[in-house]
Amino acid sequence: MTADVPTLMLMIVVSSVAMAAALLVLGWGNWRDGLHYWAMSLLVGAAGYVLFLLRGQIADAWSVVWGNTLMSVMFAGLLAAVRNFQGQPMQWPVMLVPPLFMAALMQHFMANYGLRVACASYLLACQTLWVWWTLHARRQSSPGRGAWLLAAGLAVEAAMLLARGSSALASAMEGSSILHGNTVQTLTFMVAFIALLVTSMGFVFMAKDRADETNRRLAGQDALTGVANRRSIIAALERAVASALRQRQFMALMMVDIDHFKHVNDRYGHLAGDQVLRHVVALIQQRIRAQDMVGRYGGEEFLVVLPDTTLQGARALAQQLCDVVQATPCAWEGGHIPVTLSIGVYGGVLAPQDAWDLLIHAADSALYCAKAAGRNRVELAQAQGPFTRPGSALSGTCPTPLS
Question: Which residue numbers delimit the GGDEF domain (predicted)?
Fold first, then answer.
């Protein structure tokens, strides 16, 4: 099976330029996903193929040495794109060693076509595997279909380059020009063309997967504080309630309110109010467990979901939060803003008729009692089968305040 090698190379050049243009447009203004590195690498590779196509029409030093060196630079750029996507430092001095080595090898073996092809193929294969290993070593930072597609394309490219190098050493390649058509040459550039498309599409899908994940996270996240928004925290509470009912476990809920928050905004300004919200969230997050979840329920109200937690455990945590927030005023413009909390707590073993909205209502009623009792305190919504005990928060009578 043979095909016209110059035609295959021309296809690679045109595809590389078109793909690079699309990536530059797609990644314009976004320097975090590595798309600009990938696009520039494709353009460098296209320039290398143009030099190969001009074999015999320009000096061999340009076609052989610079053509292969540009191909090595292309793979260094692909490595830079992956590292940029992962947020790793570039380490250009290390990544540019292979292109320099390639230039020296091509100059040294200028008169020996077989050794030249073998050295270039093996070196490019090593660079391809370097990109593959970088992607694999930090696969947590680039999950999804795109990473698998990119890894597959790189693996195919490396296998093709290793096979081409071995074929050159075994003298299976005919002729003394890269433009000469034979089975090995045809397979080499067909695979190169396919790998170009697969790896580039894989990298684009990686960027898309990251954007989709970011959008999903932002859709469930409060933009100011970084914790779950109202929809997400209610969904988390609903899941926790279902789990507690299945396993007959304890569960607790805290409704947290920042005392006199409107006064903070009126006196210090809304930016100061924003800082107070972030300050309180940080203190809460430092004291809850990994399985607990905090979310912004309203303007200055936060909901804390505490799976597998007794009422007394939640009460102790709530009192601790009140104490630490009072003892840790919020820093603002060289001074401090005093902050206190009122917290309503519900906890117990749930009954089959209990639902997430009833738990919120119980904790919210206890919070109302805390405010009515003077603020900066914890109040409990106690219940026997959740909301029936006289004197509970839901009954309309505030429980005995904590001393």
Answer: 249-383
